[in-house]
Structure formats: C-alpha cells, structure tokens
Amino acid sequence: MTWDGAGNLPPAAAVAGALASAGHEAHILAHDVQRPAFETMPAAFHRFETAPQWDVGQPGALGEDPVGRIMDFQGGAATDACTVAARLDPAVVLVDCMLPNALTAVKAAGFPTVALVHALYSFFAEYVDGVFKGPGFKERSRAFAAKVATEPGIERAVELLEALAAG
C-alpha cells in the first residue's frame, strides 16, 4: 500500500515488482495517478475508493493545508486498506510508513503487517513535530533497517517479507 506523496512510489513499486518476480501474488493499493507504474509488472492494482484521490504533480493538489489534507486522508486510507485486505486475505500487508492509521487498522484486523520505511528515521522524528512516530516506531524502524543493511538490496527485503509471511 502506498500513496501519492512524491517519493513513496519507487520503493513500493520495487518491492511489489520483486515479490511478483519471485512468484508471489502481489497487489497494490494506491492513488489512481500511480496506476501506470504498476501496469508494467504482474501486480494487481487497487484504487483508493474512500480516501481522496490527488496528484501531487499538479500545483496545489493538496490545497492550502497539505499536512491537514494528508491527515484527513488517513481515515479513508485505513478503511480502504482493511477492505482490500479482507477481500484478498494476504499472507502479509506492506504499508507505507507514512500511513500509520492504515498500518494500525490492518494490524488490528489481524493481518501480518510490515511498514515500508523509505526514508531516514530522522525525517519522521522531526517532521511536523514527530507526527509520524509512535510508541516503539524508532526501535522497530531501526531494527528493520539494520536487518536490511546487513545484506543490501531488494532481494533481502523480499526474504524478510517472505519470512514474516511464513510465520
């Protein structure tokens, strides 16, 4: 699951593509504007139905209060994530770390979840007074980053996701 936040697409597309190439069934929940990135890979695209659509490539797409618009987006994104997860019953749900409501909702619904942390922790700790950090987020993100850093590359991330899905 990703969203049109400017730099969020490449890491999500890389993981979805690697999983699909490794023989896994991959699905992506995202903004309509992101659909073309997934049409070239064997990953099924699911659009946000209740969360608002936007294109950050268009001037003023997030209005005069971009942080407020993103925060308002969170509830609909959580609803859409739970709806798609319930329909698909995936082995694991990968959620962009900037969608904490969706990550929390999917996990609360009983699905194994992984946060896709695609930026340095310091960004999340400092951005908007740390709105994206939560209890234990720092330790979880550092632990995941440390595991991936010991064996760099998307292949290692796929192995970690497969291990999580296997239990």
What is the N-to-C order of secondary-structure elements (H for helix, E for strand)? HEHEHEHEHHH
Radius of gyration: 15 Å
**Coarse morphology:** globular
Give the rounded overall mean pLDDT: 80
Could you characterize what this model shows?
The chain contains 7 helices and 4 strands; from the N terminus they run αβαβαβαβααα. A two-stranded parallel ribbon has the order 1-2. A two-stranded parallel ribbon has the order 3-4. Helix 2 links the parallel strand 1 and strand 2. Helix 3 runs parallel beside helix 4. It is globular and about 45 Å long. It starts with 8 loop residues before the first helix and ends with a helix. About 3% of the residues have low confidence.
List the helices and strands and how they pair.
Elements: H1 9-21, E1 26-30, H2 35-39, E2 43-47, H3 66-88, E3 93-96, H4 100-108, E4 113-116, H5 121-126, H6 137-150, H7 154-166
Parallel strand pairs: 1-2, 3-4
Keywords:
about 170 residues; mainly alpha; two-stranded parallel ribbon; two-stranded parallel sheet; globular
Summarize the model shown.
This protein has 167 residues and is mainly α.
